[in-house]
Amino acid sequence: MDLTLFMYLIPSLIMFGCGVYGFITRKNMIAIMISLELMLNSVDINFVLFNRYLFPGQMDGMFFTLFAIGIAAAETALALAIIINVFRIAKNVDINKITKLKF
Amino acid sequence: MESVGNIILYFIVAIAIIVFSVLTVTTRRILRSATYLLFVLFATAIIYFQMDYQFLGAVQIAVYAGGILVLFVFAIMLTQQPGKNAEPLASNKRWLGLIAALAGVAVCGYGLFSYADFGKRLLSGGVDVNMEKIGQFLLSTDKFGYLLPFEAISVLLLACIIGGVVIARRR
What we know:
Chain A is mainly α. Chain A has helices at about 5-25, 30-55, 60-90.
């Protein structure tokens, strides 16, 4: 039995589908961020897999993943800071209850 | 022909990724959701190690599992009452999400499997990705150099630090 590219792409595809589902159905802002992380992570896996299987001599996919991880860390830190600030003002983080842009 | 240990490791990782990502988006308690996300990230790191990208696996564990997850847990602890479940979803919204996710997976899966030739590729000999090579690529201005994104991301991180200070400051 051989480990082909498909066999690694299937878990990544399912992870992305779960991220889409969570992003649409969740109401808590932090849960939405967690679903977003799932999607980002699945894309990172795809970059690495395509690089390793199709172009093993190059390192472009690896560097894309490296930069994507750095940007995801920055983005998550800022988003969580905003969410905590919203909680400080509105006392909850439910996206259905936070409808006013101006307080 | 792969070694038996590699195949067993692959199945453990694949099943862990599938099960824990489904649990991440379906569990009602958000702290558990973050914990399942941690397992998914560890399984991803194992895939990177299997692909011979040791540095990337280390970065994945250090930044994602060590940094981002701790931020998530802090934010959850600061905003949720302990032991409180999320409200049940409205069923039409759940069906909408399920249909969107399944349609996306079906289209992507069909696209992948209809181009069957590249998907059957096998792993070709071990690549040599050592730290010296990564450092030289990151700081070179040659054809495959990454100096410009490296500098751009440093500016981005600076902007992120300033933004964090401005957002968190008391008015």
